[in-house]
Amino acid sequence: MYSRNSINLLKGLQARLQSTLVIAEHNNATLTAITQSSITAAKKIGNDVTVLVAGTKCAEVAASVAKLDGVKRVLVAENEAFNGFLPEAMTPLVLEAQKQFKFSHIIAGASAQGKSLLPRIASKLDVSPISEVIGIKDADTFERTIYAGNAVLTMKSLDPVKILTVRGTNFEATGAGSSDAPIENGPAGEFKTDLAAFVGQELAKSDRPELTAAKCIVSGGRGLKSGENFKILYDLADKLGGAVGASRAAVDAGYVSNDLQIGQTGKIVAPDLYIAVGISGAIQHLAGMKDSKTIVAINKDPEAPIFQVADLGLVADLFKAIPELTEKV
Hints:
Strand content: 15-25%
Structural class: alpha/beta
Shape: elongated
Radius of gyration: 22 Å
Distance between the termini: 71 Å
């Protein structure tokens, strides 16, 4: 029989032995906001936080990570194999780091990169990944949404290593700390893979903020009737200093490109102000924006489901209401 003091001592020792790895997402120049949110989530677990920064020329990013509150150590891995941040090359790096440091938790943002990388790591470690985490109860217990965001599931993981992607909109981005964390070299090795090769990428250039980081979003649906009509949303967004989004219906109709899609199969956003224009409010769309601080709906159909989640609703013809609103801003 163990005494209560002995059990508490063992628990304290176990907590000290546990540590969390956060996989940084960046463009070799700047860190993404979702990584700062991931660090906040990692701090809630209560373990020491190590951040892995992998790339081709990422010393500047590593230095900025070292300044963030709660980060105890930064591992830097520079290798041409990480050009394009392909999960096929990143996976063996993370596995080598896990072999060396024995992390109890591995966390990344629920972004395209995180969603493609962490399931591979979980498979190699023979554990179950936990996706789209929105809350952390303790080191083993997590919250995530199910049924397109209509229910919240609280689950406890018994796996020896917890693999998590966290939804950035549910965790505040961590800020600067009082001191810089030490920067160390990450695992070395030959991480080049023949499974995939990075050819190139084309980035859309815009003066508007990126959707997932925007404080204000003006979003359009099938009610806009054409891609040309999205111009009235761009005009309003420019006046408000916001971004433009779209429902899946508008994307599927070819009005705008799919990088603007918001919803269960698009981007998850939570701006201070979300203006839904000509969007009926399908459950899949609501799953991507219902955490917004203030939701304004403009639709000519008074029975549109979007009004059930809106803080402010206007039943009107959007082609008259939006230009009038833009003029008054």
